[in-house]
Design brief:
The chain has 504 residues and is mainly α. The protein is built from 17 helices and no strands. The termini are far apart. It holds the Pfam family Aa_trans.
């Protein structure tokens, strides 16, 4: 058997990740669940009540559908990228084989290449083995393959702004949550700009060794010091951390939903939200920006999954479960409380501190952002690291670079800027608005749509129309892509209105 033929067989059958680095589809769905469900969900009940229960329900289900559609675009583009890499590798093997045949004076390569291509290119009824999701191809690599220079510049600019902003928001949110639990409560007449110089502990005697700002910075350094080392590894190394915090996350949601239902049964509905209030729509969309976001980290979570044949269906089930969770949380909260805080956990602060159980619940819910963001932080940072590598290095030959450039530089560059920003600038409300709105719309809607449209053209020109992509999105009609672009424009308008209303 010619060496080129054996190389093709190895190319098709050899897994791109070690078996020990893979995980089941259910573990992968837990990863995606953890990434999507964060502190943004805690802002949903208040926004839900403002926009009205009817309008909010329709909007939330619609946003879940739009996010799922674009997640299928990301997977289709990733499969196209895998096909391109396999095609290029196959052409290289063919050239090497031709040289070997010429030197050995063996029969014409055409006698063998039909057999080599047969398992790759099949008819319309059988999907091609060109397409797979085995190789992790980050969004940055997809942009390098399928977008022109202007598209790549816009992509990397949007992605870096979003991911650096995300890491900064996560770091500040966790540090402030820890500070609020450790320190004494802030007086109600204190403004937001004065809290940092207050002593952490209210004491009438003795000096005050730590201010709230100093405790915030200590918590920030501790958090980044604990989560930062995960950035030097792959996402699989966070498996047990993901499973543990997923349990904490489900428990926190269950507590909030159960307590709200208990209040509804015990005292009746205290809140009376309208059915439709269009004026609350911009606020609702602002609250939903983070609610269904996973697209930037989807390739790193999908590639290690074993058995991807029905991955689209499993992902749809994951989105459905998350949407039901959000609706339960928002519905029970909107009707159980007459007044809803912007951060939903603040509604569960017990009035009777002598009740030990309620005090435990108070502390647990106050630490909810710590549980949720501790798992998302490494995934976001690893995604940023991988895309920075795609921007500055040739990812097809990473092993050829020196150890510092390959293993140390990019993890440090991913974590250090958010740490410095949140260390010296604890109030990042402007960053939250910009990151979660404009950059978020680009990451969730615009980038997947442009990538999948370009990838389809590229793979059709390269492989032909007869090569079937079994990971093709069910929303493959061009009308869906146009609809996403129109919706993105509407989102930007809604976000701009929301920001303008807050400032006016």
């Amino acid at each position: 058997m010619p060496r080129g033929f054996r190389s093709v067989r190895r190319l098709l059958k050899m897994p791109l990740a070690e078996v020990g680095d893979q995980y089941s589809v259910w573990v992968g769905l837990i990863y995606i669940f953890n990434l999507i469900v964060g502190t943004g969900a805690l802002t949903l009940p208040a926004a839900f009540a403002r926009a009205g229960w009817g309008l909010s329900t329709i909007s939330l289900v619609f946003l879940a559908f739009m996010s799922y559609m674009n997640a299928t675009y990301v997977m289709e583009t990733m499969a196209c990228a895998n096909a391109v890499f396999k095609w290029k590798r196959l052409q290289s093997i063919k050239r090497e084989s031709i040289q070997d045949h010429d030197s050995d004076e063996e029969p014409s390569p055409s006698q063998h290449y039909g057999d080599m291509e047969e398992p790759l290119v099949c008819g319309e009824s059988i999907p091609s083995r060109y397409y797979s999701l085995d190789r992790r191809v980050e969004l940055g690599e997809m942009a390098n393959l399928f977008l022109n220079k202007t598209g790549r510049i816009m992509f990397y600019g949007t992605l870096c702004v979003y991911l650096y902003g995300d890491l900064s928001i996560y770091s500040a949110a966790v540090a402030k949550s820890i500070m609020d639990v450790v320190c004494s409560s802030v007086p109600s007449n204190m403004t937001d700009g004065e809290w940092d110089q207050l002593p952490c502990f209210n004491s009438t005697s003795g000096p005050h060794p730590y201010t709230r700002l100093e405790v915030y910075r200590i918590a920030l350094l501790t958090f980044v010091g604990a989560m930062g080392p995960f950035v030097f590894f792959n996402v699989q190394k966070t498996k047990y951390l993901q499973l543990f915090t997923s349990g904490m996350r489900w428990l926190a949601f269950a507590i909030m939903i159960s307590m709200a239902i208990h209040l509804l049964i015990g005292r009746g509905a205290q809140g009376h939200p309208p059915a439709f209030d269009v004026t609350g729509m911009p606020t609702l969309f602002g609250a939903c920006v983070y609610s269904f976001m996973c697209h930037h980290s989807l390739p790193g979570l999908v590639s290690p999954i074993r058995g991807k044949d029905r991955l689209g269906l499993h992902l749809a089930l994951d989105y459905t479960l998350i949407a039901i969770f959000y609706l339960l949380l928002a519905f029970t909260g909107a009707f159980a409380f007459a007044r809803l805080n912007d951060l939903y956990t603040l509604n569960f602060v017990p009035k009777d501190n002598e009740n030990i159980f309620l005090e435990i619940v108070e502390y647990f819910l106050a630490l909810f952002p710590v549980f949720t963001l501790s798992t998302s932080f490494p995934i976001i940072a690893i995604t940023l690291r991988n895309n920075l590598q795609s921007l500055f290095l040739d990812t097809t030959r990473l092993e050829s670079y020196n150890f510092v450039l390959r293993k140390l530089l990019f993890p440090i560059v991913s974590v250090t800027p958010p740490l410095l920003l949140t260390y010296f600038l604890e109030d990042i409300s402007v960053l939250i608005e910009f990151t979660g709105s404009y950059a978020g719309t680009g990451i969730q809607y615009l980038i997947p749509t442009f990538l999948v449209m370009s990838a389809r053209r590229h793979c059709t020109n390269l492989l032909g129309l007869g090569v079937v992509n079994k990971y093709k999105s069910p929303f493959s009609n061009v009308a869906w892509a146009v609809f996403v672009l129109l919706w993105s424009f509407i989102c930007i308008v809604l976000v701009s209105v929301n920001i303008f209303e807050k400032k006016s």
